[in-house]
Specification:
The structure is a single chain. The protein is of the alpha/beta class and 363 residues long. The protein has two domains: 1-116 and 301-363, 3-Layer(aba) Sandwich (Rossmann fold); 124-297, Glutathione S-transferase Yfyf (Class Pi), Chain A, domain 2 (Up-down Bundle). It is built from eleven helices and 15 strands. Strand 1 and strand 2 (21-27) form a beta hairpin. The longest helix has 41 residues, at 175-215.
């Protein structure tokens, strides 16, 4: 049974020297918050902090140092989440992760009993019309929450790939040295490819259902996983060795995989309108949340970054209707023109965000 217990969500959020915030303290109701303010005032940074606290992940940067407030030596993000006090501290000596006041050994230990996140933003349109890297990132973020070994395999694969590429550019490197990294790429890359194939197979029917509910469209949505190698990864790496040495880059492997999206049997990137592409992107994120909910038996926190102003009323209302009713939602917006009494967000507590400060507006 899915864990929908009221209170098993983020009950508070506190920031110190994070992005534009010198300090921040928010008490958060189980249903979440509606954050209202102009551009570049700090709304998205609050969502980023939630994502970092829950998943040690930022959708805006891979480096924690970029999240430190200008001129400061580090930051702190903390809050009551899933019955425990969780803290992420970052400074000159690296990061410190605490749960219930006790230090955790590393990211895997911190995440083992943490929560789940679905991030939705205007940039999601790139899931359909952007590069393959955007779709790989979508699968990787899902895999890191869904499959126990995925996050570690991804980290080790990236390190081995970087080292192999450096060797490929070094004319003095021996074949045996490159072979050693090929073994690592095969070991960890095969796990990534198996995980991605499994996820795409499970996502596809859920995306189709969500797409129909949001857009009311009759076009058939299909998703297919396309590994960037023919046959086994080990054989593909060996066959591409000479080419890779000439180019100085590894040409096959999970870092080149593709997720193909089709609408009515045609590539969505080429033949779908912007409205159709936006609907498909929303459907992919709803399907991501549904799969996490069903497989992990708990509701993700939904972080919706300024997307409602870009949607016409029908899609906007359909999206809200298809978010899990008891999931916590953090919604940012620059204005409330889109909000009416029929929208569930109208009953949410409103918080104004202005130049790194917040004030509760009621609602």
């Amino acid at each position: 049974m899915v864990d929908c217990i009221v209170g098993r969500v983020l009950g508070s959020l506190r920031l110190v020297d994070f992005r534009c915030f010198e300090t921040l303290s928010l008490e958060v109701p189980p249903e979440g918050l509606l954050l209202v303010g102009g551009n570049a005032q700090g709304k998205t940074s609050i969502l980023e902090a939630v994502c970092l606290l829950v998943r040690l992940h930022s959708p805006r940067s891979r480096r924690m140092a970029t999240m430190v407030r200008h001129g400061c030596g580090g930051f702190g993000v903390a809050g009551e989440a899933w019955g425990d006090e969780r803290q992420v501290r970052h400074g000159g000596r690296g990061s410190r992760l605490l749960v219930g006041g006790e230090a955790r050994k590393g990211p895997g230990d911190y995440l083992a009993d943490g929560g789940l996140v679905v991030w939705m933003g205007n940039e999601d349109l790139e899931l359909v019309r952007g590069s393959g890297g955007v779709r790989r990132h979508f699968l990787d973020f899902l895999g890191s929450q869904l499959l126990p070994e995925y996050r570690g395999a991804l980290s080790r694969y990236r390190r081995a790939l970087k080292a192999r590429n450096l060797l490929l550019r070094d004319r003095r490197a021996s074949g045996a040295e490159i072979d050693a990294y090929d073994e690592l790429l095969v070991r960890h890359g095969s796990l990534l490819q198996a995980g991605r194939e499994q996820m795409v197979n499970e996502l596809a029917p859920r995306v189709a259902v969500a797409h129909c509910r949001i857009g009311g469209a009759e076009e058939v949505v299909t998703m297919s996983y396309r590994p960037a190698c023919e046959g086994r990864l080990a054989e593909s790496l060996a066959a591409a060795r000479d080419r890779d040495r000439r180019s100085g880059q590894t040409s096959v492997g999970p870092h080149r995989d593709e997720l193909r999206l089709e609408l009515g049997g045609m590539p969505a990137v080429d033949f779908a309108s912007e409205g159709q592409q936006r609907t498909l992107a929303l459907a992919m994120k709803l399907a991501q949340g549904r799969l996490l909910e069903e497989r992990r038996e708990r509701l993700p926190v939904y972080l919706l970054d300024d997307i409602f102003g870009e949607l016409e009323p029908a899609r906007r209302n359909a999206l809200m209707a298809n978010l899990p009713e008891r999931a916590q939602r953090w919604i940012t917006t620059t204005h409330l023109d889109w909000l009416d009494d029929a929208n569930p967000a109208s009953a949410m507590r409103r918080v104004g965000v202005v130049k790194g400060t917040v004030r509760t507006e009621g609602g």
